[in-house]
Amino acid sequence: MTILWVLGAVASLGAGVVGERFLGIRARRQSQKLAALKERLDVYANYAKLAAVRRAETEETLAGLRREVAEVEGEILSLQSAVTDEAALAPMEFYSVDRVARSGGPLWYVAVEALDATAPWSGVRHYAVAADTAEDARKRIVERYPSPSSFAISPAAQLVLPER
Predict the structure, then answer these.
(1) Residue 96: which of 59, 144, 64 has the closest Cα?
(2) Of 90, 119, 146, which marks where a domain is finished?
(3) For residues 111 and 138, is the Cβ–Cβ distance under 8 A?
(4) Residue 123, phi-psi category: left (phi > 0), alpha (psi -120 to 50), beta (remainder)
(5) CA distance 92 to 28
(6) Which one, of 153, 149, 78, lies nearest residue 117 by Cα?
(7) Are 104 and 135 found together in one domain?
(8) Mean pLDDT by 10-residue block, N- to C-terminus, for the chain (164 residues)?
């Protein structure tokens, strides 16, 4: 019976050694996985810090841009009001070509700039042209001032005169 006890003890010891090795290997693998996950967590924490810094920088830049937009909008509004005030005070002067505007017909605005020193005037003349289309209005001005090197002619735009 002692042999049986010895064999039982050796078998238990062998099973314990095998179990300990198996559990040791498993514990090592779990420790390695845990270490890898901790490293990954550190990397993500650094990404989070970087994202927070960039977000703060972006919000600061956005706030600065909003201030600039507000300033520019204020400047635009002041310039628009100045133009409106000056436009109301300044008399409008247009040159016209050979036709008188029909009561229901459209008027077209065409600007002609004298480019050459030999031109009969200097600067820009503003023409009010009565024509059915913008192309017809520009064509009539081009017929009057055919030299492209002496005169720059703008595209025709619909002219709406203010009520006085």
Answers:
(1) 144
(2) 90
(3) no
(4) left
(5) 92
(6) 149
(7) yes
(8) 85 87 91 94 94 95 93 86 62 66 73 83 84 88 82 84 62
